[in-house]
């Protein structure tokens, strides 16, 4: 499901705090205090991630060599059809000492800012997220917005998906999701292996608003879906859930992960899609709602929600330094 490890974490602890014999082929281990280890790691990751800027900075792939730009004179160009527009004294001009200093300063200005904090404070979106004014869309998929620090490009689907996900988290809390019965139950055929996965999770899925009925062999009836889905295709949802179940075991931790993954699926299906034309007021409303989130910088699946092109970089691109 496009999931890959992004880090390897080494832990040192007393052998008394873990059991390496819970799996016949040593594919799993068990911690005496699993929740405690999880909390320690989560706190460490949060402090590390919250100590730097969360908005990807848009830079050109190949910045010109600084020494070359400062030390080498501008080459003379052969005068062609541009003669009527550019005078010969400009074409033959070399860089003066003052211009070299200005060029160096301009290069320094386009370097991305690094924000460091020795002790990361609790995350506050209202203090970090820029105030943005919607300007329009690109290909009905990306919102262009102006901020104090330059131009921002927002993925409208990723942004709306994150808004929906945090709304679902707040709404559901630790409670079961509300179900909505289907007028006509839907039928799904699964493989024998998929049947084993579903039959083990059928009670947990009920807590998540999904009511399945085993209809013999490898056939299931889908009788109800989460109310937030508004009667969308249940077969596709069950196939997505089966894919999630195939990623890991079915212990208590998996139950919590399954809940989060289902909320992500629901948010994705509810969110505005790419190629959807939005009015300027709709774009602005989305940006304002995004600014209120706990973490507005990434969608539930980890993709960036927005990228930033600074005013300094725009000036450099247009040679206004």
Describe the structure in your own words.
- Mean pLDDT is 78; it is low at 65-95 and 107-127.
- The longest helix has 19 residues, at 252-270.
- A hairpin with a 2-residue loop joins strand 4 (142-147) and strand 5.
- This protein has 321 residues and is of the alpha+beta class.
- The chain has helices spanning 34-49, 66-71, 88-91, 97-109, 125-128, 156-172, 192-207, 234-245, 252-270, 280-290, 311-317; strands spanning 18-19, 30-31, 133-138, 142-147, 150-155, 179-189, 211-214, 219-226, 306-310.
- Helix 6 (156-172) packs across helix 9, helix 6 crosses helix 10 and helix 8 (234-245) runs antiparallel to helix 9.
- The strands form three sheets. The protein has a four-stranded antiparallel beta sheet with strand order 3-4-5-9.
- It contains eleven helices and nine strands.
- 39% of the residues lie in helices and 16% in strands.
- The protein has two domains: 50-63 and 110-321, formyl-coa transferase, domain 3; 66-109, no CATH class.
């Amino acid at each position: 499901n496009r999931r890959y490890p992004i880090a390897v974490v080494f832990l040192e602890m007393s052998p008394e705090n873990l059991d390496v014999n819970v799996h016949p082929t040593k594919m799993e281990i068990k911690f005496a205090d699993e929740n405690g280890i999880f909390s320690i790691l989560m706190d460490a990751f949060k402090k590390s991630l919250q100590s730097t800027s969360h908005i990807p900075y848009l830079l050109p792939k190949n910045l010109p060599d600084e020494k070359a730009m400062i030390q080498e004179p501008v080459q003379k160009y052969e005068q062609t059809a541009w003669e009527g527009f550019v005078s010969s004294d400009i074409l033959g001009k070399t860089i003066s000492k003052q211009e070299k200093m200005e060029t160096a300063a301009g290069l320094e200005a386009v370097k991305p800012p690094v924000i460091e904090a020795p002790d990361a404070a609790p995350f506050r979106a209202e203090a970090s997220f820029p105030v943005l004014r919607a300007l329009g869309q690109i290909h009905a998929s990306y919102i262009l917005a102006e901020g104090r620090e330059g131009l921002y490009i927002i993925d409208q689907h990723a942004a709306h998906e994150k808004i929906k996900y945090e709304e679902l988290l707040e709404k559901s809390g630790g409670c079961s999701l509300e179900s909505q019965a289907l007028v006509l139950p839907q039928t799904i055929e699964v493989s024998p292996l998929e049947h084993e996965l579903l039959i083990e999770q059928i009670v947990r899925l009920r807590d998540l608003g999904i009511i399945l009925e085993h209809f013999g062999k490898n056939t299931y009836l889908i009788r109800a879906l989460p109310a937030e889905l508004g009667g969308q295709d249940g077969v596709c949802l069950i196939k997505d859930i089966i894919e999630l179940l195939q990623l890991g075991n079915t212990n208590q931790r998996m139950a919590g992960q399954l809940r989060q993954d289902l909320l992500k699926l629901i948010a994705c299906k509810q969110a505005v899609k790419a190629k959807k034309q939005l009015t300027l007021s709709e774009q602005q409303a989305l940006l304002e709602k995004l600014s209120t989130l706990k973490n507005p910088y990434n969608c539930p699946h980890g993709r960036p929600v927005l990228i930033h092109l600074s005013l300094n970089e725009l000036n450099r691109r247009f040679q206004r330094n």
